[in-house]
Amino acid sequence: LSLYRKLEEGKDAAAHGKTGAGLRGIEIKDRTVGIIGTGAIGGYYGAKLSKAGFEVHFLLHSDYEYVADNGLTVDSCDGAFRLAAPAIYDDTRKMPQCDVVIVALKTTNNQLLPTLLTPLLKPDTIVLLIQNGIGVEAEAEKMMPGIQLAAGLAFICSAKVGPGHINHQFYGNI
Q1: CB 85, CB 71: distance < 8 Å
Q2: pTM
Q3: What is the chain's mean pLDDT, rounded?
């Protein structure tokens, strides 16, 4: 199952009063998700999680002002939607610590990972890397020994078509 599906199943179980519905013993309704790299991949998955009711925090740079004024739009083959006021930040030091951090940066920016991730990490935070390249996990582990990493492969066709605007054409599994 994809991380999204696992979170969805936990959320559904929690909504029906089942205990232990969360991953690692945390109730799913209490999970926070950070998105580092709010583009075609990170923006899409983060927006889907936010739309499903999860607490999602997005790091933005060049799109920050636009998304603050206009929200985040996803045109999707599964149905278009807009997050009118997503939780956005221009600096990870302003973000809350998260239970799960999805890293969807281009690997050419991985030297920034220690600076970007450190403010977001709790002792049990899971960092999910969804990046192009082979061996990115080993490099991240070298930069931040002891970090709890998970590697993801996004089988998706999506593109960032403008500021705060993602076009999802097909697929979507992690």
Answers
A1: yes
A2: 0.83
A3: 87
